[in-house]
Design the sequence.
């Protein structure tokens, strides 16, 4: 099975502070953020809710997408989230399983 890479967006709350990242293990990475195991921006600002993610087969594509999203206007990021997650549901630990499939 080919390795998967994830571009993800965390939020402190609906329309709150946002963080965009990339990882090869989304479940573990979000757990680290939620548990404040990663010192820095997300722990300082309480950014712990997984509100969006995309799946890639190539790490270079994922990194390029992450860099592009980070440069976006805030409004565009909000629209991206709300297009697939209008209620800003925390996708980590969702009752339908983790991660909530967007493939």
Sequence:
């Amino acid at each position: 099975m080919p390795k998967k890479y994830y571009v993800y967006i965390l939020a402190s709350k609906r329309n709150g502070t946002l963080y965009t990242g990339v990882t090869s293990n989304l479940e573990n990475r979000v757990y680290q953020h939620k548990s404040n195991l990663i010192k820095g921006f997300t722990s300082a600002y309480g950014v712990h809710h997984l509100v969006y993610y995309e799946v890639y087969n190539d790490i270079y594509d994922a990194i390029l997408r992450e860099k592009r999203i980070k440069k976006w206007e805030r409004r565009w990021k909000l629209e991206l989230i709300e297009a697939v997650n209008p209620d800003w549901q925390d996708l980590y630990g969702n009752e339908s399983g983790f991660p909530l499939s967007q493939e």
Summary: The longest strand covers residues 49-56.
